[in-house]
Design a protein that fits this description.
Blueprint: H1 8-11, H2 19-32, E1 38-41, E2 44-47, H3 49-58, E3 64-66, H4 72-83, H5 91-100, H6 102-115, H7 127-139, H8 143-155, H9 158-165, H10 173-191, H11 228-238, H12 243-259, H13 261-275
Parallel strand pairs: 1-3
Antiparallel strand pairs: 1-2
Helix pairs in contact: 2-3, 5-7, 5-8, 6-7, 7-8, 8-10, 10-11, 12-13
Length: 278
C-alpha cells in the first residue's frame, strides 16, 4: 500500500462523515474492498480521506489515481467540484464550504484579470464581483443569498449555525439573516440613545419596593419587550458597575414576594442545571 501525505486543510474542507456513515463505509470496505481509487496530487491525498483511514487501519489494499494540479488552492477547488454532489448538504453548509474557497477564487480572478488585455476587461466586472459570482455558483445559490450566509457566518452564534447546517425546521438563511440584522439595528439604536443623568436628590433608594414612587430620568428607546438580552446589554453599558447585580437581587426579592418560594426554587434549579456542575 502507498503512504500518502495528509494535508489538514484538504482533509477538513468538507464536513466529516457521521459516526453512523463512517461505520457503514467501514463495513462496506471490509466486505467488498476499496472499490473506488483514492486521488493524490504530488503524494498528497486529495480525495478519499475516510477510505484511506479505514484501509490503513485494516490493511485493505487500495488503488491510487494521480491528478495534475498547479497549487493547493487548485486542489481545494478540485475537491469541492468533485465531491459536492456526494453529500446531502444544506444550503447554508454549502455556502459555508464555498466561503472557505474565497481566497482561492479571488486569487484566480485577479490572475485572470491581469492576463487579459486592458481593453478586454469589462468595466462592469471587477475581480470582486467575479469572485462573488463564482462562489455563489459553487454554493448553488444567488450572490445575494451567499452574502447573507457570509453575514450569518460572521455574526451568528454556533447554535444558530448548527441548526442551519442540519436544516432544522423553522430556520433558513433568509430568516436568520433578517433576525440578526434586526438585532443589530436594535442594538445600534439603543447604543445611540441619549441618557440624562439622574440628579442626586432624585435618585431612587438602593432597593426600591413597589410602594416607593420615583420618576426615572433615564430614557432607553426602542428596547423590545420580548428581548431581555437587549435590555441587559444596555444596563451593562449605560449604568454604573454593580447595577445589574443589584437588579438581580431586587428581582429575586420581588419574585419571592409576589410568586412565592417555589417559583424561585424552580428558577435556581434551572440555572444550576444549565450552568452548575454536572
Amino acid at each position: 500500500m502507498k503512504d500518502l501525505v495528509i494535508n489538514e486543510e484538504l482533509k477538513n474542507l468538507l464536513p466529516p462523515l457521521s459516526a453512523e456513515e463512517f461505520a457503514g463505509l467501514e463495513e462496506s470496505i471490509l466486505k467488498d474492498g476499496c472499490l473506488s481509487p483514492l486521488v493524490e496530487w504530488n503524494g498528497i491525498l486529495v480525495d478519499g480521506h475516510h477510505r484511506y483511514e479505514i484501509c490503513t487501519k485494516h490493511q485493505v489494499p487500495f488503488a491510487v489515481k494521480s491528478v495534475v494540479l498547479d497549487s493547493l488552492d487548485d486542489a481545494k477547488l478540485w475537491i469541492w467540484k468533485h465531491q459536492e454532489n456526494r453529500r446531502n448538504l444544506t444550503p447554508y453548509h454549502r455556502a459555508e464550504i464555498a466561503l472557505k474557497l474565497k481566497e482561492a477564487i479571488a486569487a484566480k480572478a485577479k490572475e485572470r484579470q491581469v492576463r487579459k488585455p486592458a481593453d478586454s476587461v469589462p468595466a462592469n466586472l471587477p475581480e470582486q464581483k467575479e469572485t462573488r459570482e463564482e462562489l455563489a455558483e459553487l454554493a448553488g445559490m444567488s450572490p445575494r443569498s451567499l452574502a447573507k450566509a457570509e453575514f450569518i457566518a460572521e455574526h451568528a452564534d454556533e447554535d444558530t449555525k448548527e441548526k442551519l447546517r442540519h436544516g432544522v425546521k423553522g430556520t433558513s438563511i433568509d430568516k436568520e439573516y433578517k433576525r440578526l440584522k434586526e438585532e443589530e439595528k436594535t442594538e445600534s439604536d439603543v447604543s445611540n440613545t441619549s441618557v440624562e443623568p439622574v440628579a442626586e436628590q432624585d435618585a431612587p433608594p438602593a432597593h426600591p419596593n413597589k410602594d416607593v414612587k420615583f420618576v426615572p430620568r433615564t430614557t432607553l428607546k426602542l428596547i423590545p419587550q420580548d428581548s431581555p438580552r437587549v435590555l441587559l446589554v444596555n444596563l451593562f453599558e449605560l449604568f454604573r458597575e454593580g447595577f445589574v447585580e443589584d437588579m438581580v437581587v431586587m428581582a429575586v426579592e420581588m419574585l419571592l414576594e409576589e410568586r412565592g418560594k417555589e417559583t424561585v426554587k424552580s428558577l435556581l434549579a434551572e440555572l444550576n442545571k444549565k450552568y452548575g456542575r454536572k
